[in-house]
Each structure stands twice: as structure tokens, then as C-alpha cells.
Amino acid sequence: MFDRFFALFGGDTYQARAIRGSAAVVTRMVGENVIRLGGNLILTRILFPEAFGLMALVTVVLVATSNFSDVGINPAILQHERGHDPVFLNTAWTIQIGRGVILCLAILFLAEPVATFYEAPQLADLLMVAAVVPLIQGFNSTKLATARREIQLERLVALEIGSQIVGTIAMIVLSLWLQSVWGLMLGTLVGPVFVAVLSHLVMKGESNRLAFEREACSRIFGFGKYVFFATIAGFFVHHGDRTILGKYVSLDDLAIYNIGFFLASVPALLATTISWNVIYPLYARRPPADSEANRRKINLARRFLTLGMLLLMTFLALIGDWLIRVLYDVRYEAAGPILILVALGGMASAIIQTYDTMPLANGHSGRFAFFTTVRAAVLIACLLLTVPAYGLWGAALAPAVTAILIYPLLIWAIAPYKGWDPLHDILFATLAAVLAATVVWVHADTLRAAFPGQASL
């Protein structure tokens, strides 16, 4: 029995690495979100809601510029057969540094126009400081990507949790001192510095140095040309709600939405992290199309993951309003109904969560980019139709409508890889409908009161 246990958890097989990797990812997600929640509770008592609305817009701009310039360096290292070659890795690192410099300059250039668009003058100064973040991240060691490639995540997780702790402490101390949004902004710089330095010092692998090989560059950009479009689309999939809300609602309302969204999205973030760090490498190393055994094991993993997400979303939706009232002061109570709606809106997406990386893992970044782009276009269309009319209510539920509309396209996108599991989708769609109806029944009065005239419950 013990021999089997140690073989399963302590061996060097991909199965053992996947199990340890999943445990590490769960540890990271729990640790980071506990730290983030604790820091958030302290910071909301130090600062005013508008500060968090401003920082939500800063985050949107940082993520947007990062996604709009992603040339697929990390996916290329994970997927390419030369992903362990020092020359390939050093070329990737050199490209990554150059990209960081370009991003820094781009944010400096965009600071004033973005602040004008959102009618928030202070945002310009904040973005000029935030421009340093991608410059710092450009110097991260490729050992981080190598750890993901080999599903050896223990040190990586420790580094990321350490970064979260250091960054949160810095934000709290600086906010107490400065009593303004600048405490959040300057504290945000600490975590990236921590990761950039320690990624070279504590992660396993060969040290990076500046290098350039034409073939490696060609391979990275050849693979990444479609990843570039996919990450642009991915930005709108994951951040389109806040991008559009920032134009239509006040900074205070945006901050309230952000709090509800943060708590409700924990299951989806956990699933995304597991998908990219564990299931994606498994798709690449053990494709479902290669054997029935591969398909059976991945389907089983996907079912456990989906079940966990749906149950956790339901739990958060049921306790959401109470949780917000317990954790936050009266200024943030409106985040409770938002938490409920975002959790419900995420259920449909949870069912298809782990399918979309299948084409990318098989080296077909074009198919992945096409699907992600269409998904983003559908979501943005839903948001533009619902947010002006229904505000926060429309933003919270648009992802559910999008997941249903793009499902046929998803089946087409993954068809060549024999990874579709229709039984999984039918069973969990039924379960999601039952769970969502239960939550709506329990919280009908709360939702009517929070969204009068919009919740026909």
C-alpha cells in the first residue's frame, strides 16, 4: 500500500507530477486568495472605494497591453520540442526583455488617452508608474516556464505565494503611510521585483543570458503569431466586463463589482490555473487522440475538476450576500448580490473550462486563436448590449450567455483531438441548471432588492 502511495505521489512519472502539480496549484490558489482577501479586508478599511476603482482600471490597462503584445514565448517553451534547449531558452529570454521595454513605452504613451477615455485624470499618473511593471517582468527567468513544461511546480508555487505575501504587506504599509491610492500603486511594484530576482536564484535550471538564434526566434514567432491574436481575444474574455463597465459606471461601483467578482471567480481561477499548469502539459505529452487510456484519464480529471467548480460556485453563491456583510463594511454591501450573479454566470463557462487549450497543446495555435477570438467577439457583443441597459447585472450574466452560444464552435475546434466528452457536458449542464435554480430561489428577494426592475425572479 505504501509502495503504491509513494509510486503515485513521489515518482517521476507524468501521472505523479500531475498529481503533485495539481496539489501545488490548489495550494497556490488557496494561499494567494487567502492572502489577497486578507489584504483586501485591511485595505478597504484604510482607503476609500474610489481607490480600488482606479486600481481596477490600472490592472485592466496592464493586462491589456500584456495580452496585446503576447508573442507566445511561454506556450512555445511548453509545447516546442526544443523547449529545454539553452539556446532556445536564452533567445526566448532576450525576446521577453525586448517585449518588456516596448510595453513600458506603450503604457507611458497611452496613459493620458486612457485617463481621458475613462474621465479619471489621476489615472494618467498611476499608469506612468505602472509602466515599470512589464519592464520588470521582462527579466523573469525562463526557469518559470521550464517548471511548467515539466510539471515540477513546487518551487514555482512557493515563489508565487511569497510574492503575494510580500506585495500585500507592502501595499498595506504604504497605504497606511500615504493614505491614498498611491499606497496600492507603489505596493504593486514589489511583487514583480520579488519574482524577477528570485526566479533566477531559487528555480532549478540553467541561468539565462542574452542570446539570439535566428531559428529559435523564427520558431517562437511562428508559433506565437496566432497566440498573439488569441491573447488579445483572451483579454476581452477575462477582462471585457471591467473594461466596458469602467466607461458606464462610477469608480465606486466598479470597485464594488471588483470585490464581488474577485470572490465569485475563485473557482474559475483555480480551474484555469490547473488547466494551464497540469491539463495543458498532459494534452501536449499524453494527447487523448493517441489512446483510449489517455482519453479516459483526462476525461476523469476533467469531471472531477468540473464537479469541484460547480459545487464551489454554488456554495459561494449561497453564502455570498452574508459573506460580504460579514467581511466588509456598509460601503461595500452591494457586492453581495454581485457575487451571487457572477457565481451563477460562471457555471456555464465552468463546464467547457478545460477544452479550449486542446488545439494549442497540439501545436495548432491558429485554431485556438480563431475559437478564442470568436468567443471574445460574442462576449463583447453581449456586454455592449447588456451593460448600458442593465449595468452590473448585465456584466455579471453575459459570460453565461456567451458560453452557451459558442458551445457548437468549441465542439468543432476540439474535434480533431478526440477530446470531447458529451456525457460530461450533459450531466454537468443538468447539474448546473438545478444548482442555479436553487440559488435563485434562495436569494430571490435579495436579487430583487439589489436590482429593482431588472430581476424578474
Please, could you describe this protein's structure?
With 457 residues, the protein is mainly alpha-helical. Helices cover 81% and strands 0% of the residues. It has 2 domains: 14-225, no CATH class; 249-451, no CATH class. The chain has helices at residues 2-10, 14-46, 49-67, 73-79, 86-117, 122-130, 132-137, 143-149, 154-178, 181-188, 190-201, 214-248, 251-264, 266-285, 292-327, 335-345, 347-351, 358-361, 365-390, 392-414, 422-442, 444-450. The longest helix is centred in the last third of the chain and has 36 residues, at 292-327. It is globular. The protein starts with a helix and ends in a 7-residue tail after the last helix.
Provide key terms for this protein.
457 residues, mainly alpha, 2 domains, disordered N terminus
Compose a concise summary of this entry:
The protein is mainly α and 457 residues long.
Summarize the amount of helix as a percent range.
over 70%
Low-confidence stretches: 1-9
Structural class: mainly alpha
The domain tally reads 2
Q: Give the H and E element order.
A: HHHHHHHHHHHHHHHHHHHHHH
What's the rounded overall pLDDT mean? 81
Question: DSSP helix count?
Answer: 22
Beginning-to-end CA distance, first to last residue: 53 Å
Count of β-strands: 0
Beta-strand share of residues = under 5%
Characterize the biggest β-sheet. none
Estimate the global geometry from the Cα principal axes.
globular
Radius of gyration: 22 Å
